[in-house]
Write a structure and sequence with these properties.
A hairpin with a 2-residue loop joins strand 4 and strand 5. This protein has 5 helices and 10 strands. The model has no long low-confidence stretch (mean pLDDT 96). 24% of the residues lie in helices and 24% in strands.
Length: 225
Amino acid sequence: MKPYVVMHMGSSIDGRIVPSQWPQEITAALTAIYERLHRELAGDAWIVGRVTMAEFAEDDPRPVVTHEAFPRSAWKAPGAAKGPYAVAVDQGAKLHMNINEINGDPIVMILPESVPDNHLAELRRDGISYLFAGRNEIDLALALERLSADFGIERLLLEGGGGINGSFLSAGLIDEISLLILPVADGSVNVPTTFDRPIEPATRLSLMSLEQLEGDVVYLRYRPW
């Protein structure tokens, strides 16, 4: 059984999700509204890709060398008894967080079984939980099953970036879309968008609700057709 997945994102009217060129008042409004809706959506966990999670890391990497061989089974850190959890997909075992929680949410890493034992030792040292989903490449459907079985996650908020959103979309794993459209036209090229994926047939959506929020922000909710 997989969790119910809600993709929760904010973007310009042309789908860009990097706010570096937006007016400061626009980004401030997005942050306030986005976080309020994040709480109202009441996820047991939120999940992001490696690049997004790396923004929360602290200090320089502190690698560990071990001669121990760890079992390829889920490990729950002592401080991770309950959520909400902060989940990251780390295909290449490149994340070095040096923290075990984000705003009080315990971190959980989704890894392939081929990850080196040195990296598992580092996660254990830092008190970061992890699970495995696939031998060499991460199987997102399996990852969701493991999140449900090992961490009791029933409702998951998918919160970017565009690559992981696109992967979930392609795999048919998104149950609902919660999208904030900001009153700004970006137009930047070669920047992440709400969904980034290889060319393939578009996914048709069904509108659930439409609401105008403060600051001329439009709130759209969809479900896949």
